[in-house]
Predict the 3D structure of the following.
Amino acid sequence: MTPAEWQHFAQVHGERNLPDASTYMPWLLAEARPQVLDAILGKFPPHLLAAYREQWAPAYAALEIWPANGEPVPSDAAHDR
């Protein structure tokens, strides 16, 4: 894709995913290498960077998506926490 096509793609999908950014971004970046994480977070506006570091990432890290016993947590139980 050309740079203009990538920019269009990023704009469209950024707008589409914005309502779910608090869950989507921590999931997307969960396994990122530190240098990749720094590069991506370096492009965040200050208010979104603060939200990511102070709220989104800690909330995502606290989820028990795959608990130690290997049994997935039912979605209604995970939501009640």
About this structure: The chain has one domain: 18-80.
